[in-house]
Structures are given as structure tokens and as C-alpha cells.
Specification:
two-stranded parallel ribbon; mainly alpha; 17 helices
Length: 405
Amino acid sequence: MLTIELNMYHAVALGAFLFWMGGIITDKVRLLNRYCIPAPLVGGLCFSVLNCILYSAGIASVTFDSTLQTVFMIMFFTTVGFTVSIPALLKGGKAVMLCLIVSIVMIPLQNFLGGGVMEVFGCDPLLGIGCGSIALIGGPGTAAAFGPDLEAAGAVGGSVVSIAAATFGLVAGSLMGGPTARRLIEKHNLRPETMTAIGGTQGVGLATDVASEDERFITNSPRFVKGFMLLLLAVGIGNQVSVWPTALTDLTFPAYIGAMLVAVVVRNVMDGAHTEYPAEEIDTMGNMFLSIFLAMALAGLKLWELIDLALPMIVCLLLQCVVMVLFAYFVVFRVMGRNYDAAVMTAGFIGFAMGATSNAMANMQVMTKKYGPSPVAYFAIPMVGGMFIDFFNAVLIAANIGWWA
């Protein structure tokens, strides 16, 4: 078999091309546009399907250096951190707490569903945790971190199962979020409370949306340079800050946590000092980084790993999807307030509770681009999915491993 290895520069070029191609496809295919499927997902999946066909036929396998993919991920979440302010935290604390509560409830639901299905099929129930919150709410990073723990507890193949389930979750979270939120919005005729009669916005109180590709604003080179330098400052300092939580707690946290926290501090110091903050410029950079990161991440999916899944794992993952949609539609939407913000948060919740916070942001980005801004959702979902939930997930995973072991 021919092995094609792309270096990090080739990988970035591929991601940019796939994003462009995905945009063309979503514009041409009405079904994709109607159900709010993100352009990076479409382009990335097209490539991963092609790669899977080549691999399965024994013709070729394409791999690439993901170094810059990680960099883009960290830089995107850093831009999200810049949207958070202390006054906003006080105003939006209720939304964050409610979102965190429903997320915590989802963790044991995923684990006990996975473990129960595996027991029914006569398999080790610990593998069910690998198909539960380790892979879904936790995402690929948590799957890679906790897979060896499952194997140490006696679950043979725990790492492979967890990573494969996380791969499935990335795709499923993106595919389910938009259609579910769209159904809620149109069924209840929901619209943003901040929208004016002429379609503009007024008084964004909690955070700013990640800029869409078609948004326009007036800027200049010094403002753009200032925004980029602030971003690099937060990423550099945050790299060291990310080490401290792990050292203090022995828990595994996402690589972007430190940069997000530093961005929050920098933003609030600038606000307190009444220093001009280049919000639109940083938001636009956030959109760029999210698009290229998501396209590269999905292009790198090894879909042939899903083909080799045993029947119990397939059944388990399909049931996880069903439970997730029902929980988000009937519980999350109601708990979060049954309004437009709640519908957008439902899309975000499905994104990070099935895959990763980047999926959540992509889901919400498409919804807000189509229906209007949701500052509350853009504040609560990254805070919960990118920061708080990892603490509780790690603790509950350990408890569930002890239960099934």
C-alpha cells in the first residue's frame, strides 16, 4: 500500500482547500444548507471518506502532521476566552450553572448506557465507559488519556474502543446538533431577543459571536496587528498556565485551558483600564482558526476504524445518539429556558457532549449565522464544555470504572 505523508504545511493547505470545497458543496446542496451542516465538516468528511476507500482497497493511505491543527485549536479557544468579562460572568452565571448541571447529569447516563449494552452482549462493561463519557463528553483527548486506565482495570482494547468511539462522536455531534436546534427554532417560532426590526443587534450583553465569513466591519492594520499580538501573548503564557491544574490535581485537561484563562484575564484588565480592545478583529481570527482546525480534524478521521467495530459497540453508539437527541430536545432546551438562546445551546450541547467543544462552536456558529446572534450561548457553552465539565467528567469516570470493575 502506498503511504502518503503530508507535512504540517501540506496539511494546512489541505484544510484550507477542504473548507473552500465544503462551502461550495453546502451552497449547492440544499439539504446540507437546510440542516445547518458546517462547511468544514462537509469538506473534511469528503476527504476522510475518500481516504477510507483508498485504505480499504489497499491502494493508499494518507496521513499528515497535525502540529498546526493543535495550534489552530488552541488559538481558536483563546479567542473565545477573550469574549468573557467579569460583569458578563455575574449576569450569565445562571446559564452557566444550568448548563453545567445538565452536562453532569449526562455523564453517568452515557456511562451506564454504554456499560449496560456491553453487559447485555456479554462484553466487558468497562468497554461501555469507553463508548460513554470518556469518548463523547470527554472527546478524543480524554479518550487517549483514559484508554490506558480502562486497560489497566482489565478492559482489553479499551484504548482502541475509546478512540474509535470518540471519532464517531465527532461526526455524530456535528450532524445532529444543527437539525435538532433548527427543529426547535422553527417549531416554537423562536428568534433572538436582541434582534431589531431591521435585522441588526443591540446591546450584546454577555459575549460576542465568532464572526461569520460574510460579516463586515471597519478596521485598520494597527488594530488587526494589536489583536493578533494579544492572541499570541495569551497563547504563550497560557501554555505554562495549562501545566498547573494538571500538576495540582493529577487530572488531564485540554491543552487550551491555560490560554483561555489568560485571555479572560487580559480582556478584563484591558476593560478595567479602559484600553481599546479589538473585538471584531479577534472574533474574525477566531472564525478563521475554527474553520481550518475543524476541516483538518475531520480530514484526519480514520473512518475504517468504525467499519471494524463489533456489533455491541455499533448498537451502543447508536443508542447514545438517540438518548442524546432526546435528552437535548426535551431536557436541555426546557432547563435552559425554552427560548432562542436555549435552542442554540441545544445545538452546542450536542456538539460537545458527543464530540468536542469545537463541534459545539461550529454548530452554534452555523445556527447564529442563519437565525441571528446568541451571546448567552456563546458564553455558557465554551465555559462548560471547554473548562468546567472536564473536572466533573474525570471524577465520575473514575467512579464509574470502580463501579464496573
